Amino acid sequence: MVQELVTDERATPKISVYDKKTIDRVTADAPANGYTF
Amino acid sequence: MMPAFSEVHLAYGKDAPRFKGLFVHPIVGWVTGIDLNDLGKETPKVFNGKTGEVFADKALACHVSLPAGKTADVEIVNIFERSEGPDIRFETDGFGPVTDCWVDDKKTNFARWLTDNTVDTKLPLMADYNGALINVSIQAVDPKAGTVSLYAPVFKDRTYRLAKPMPDYVQGFKSVTAGPTHDLAFACNCTLNYVYGKLDGARAGLPGPFTFGEIAYQLLNQTMVYLDVDDAGVPHEGGGTSPSRWPRRTEP
Prior knowledge:
A: 37 residues; alpha+beta; 22% strand; B: four-stranded mixed β-sheet; 19 strands; 32% strand
């Protein structure tokens, strides 16, 4: 299944890697208007 | 996305409800799995398509900005209803192994209670989160050891009940998914619904993968979730409930 993300073309989506010690940063890294997938 | 049974999966399931600002930002995703025939032989993984990296112990998240005028909404679709009781409470937070619990204020061994009452363990435990019903699926019961393993954590400050029997999962999804009339950004459904509901070949719910756990802000089980991107200010359509509209709990 291939799904095209709905994005702001002026802001490239950012991929982040988290482990058990850093996963709580996921909310801080989230964009002000957007979503985290 | 996070690999099933990894430490980051367990940490997110247990701790995410206490993350600062969790319910402010739409977060949607899934717990990755394996072919059920490979249980015990393979480990679930996540793949970074940009770099080719493969992880069995880390989570990947893609943070996506939307243009002004657009808004993202994460919705939960739960086909189950809470039974009339009894009330079940647990002594500690976590996925288990659970030993003791309180059933209507009587302390008992959870595994023994499930066995003695011939409970259908395909039915999830359900807790009311300010009007939204959240499922916790039972993974395994070991009556000899007196332990129960769970696919999501229970929390000691919540009161659980078993779900009512679900005789027809296809009809269950049809009855709760009026569904948006436009294409959705993303949807996924739980593989337990696929297996227990015999959904192979059925048209039920929304298009998307079946997963080992769903994320709509926090970790969920036996649930369908979807992400909708729409014009800001447009009333949401569809059959779900959104944690972003739940009354806020006090966050640390």
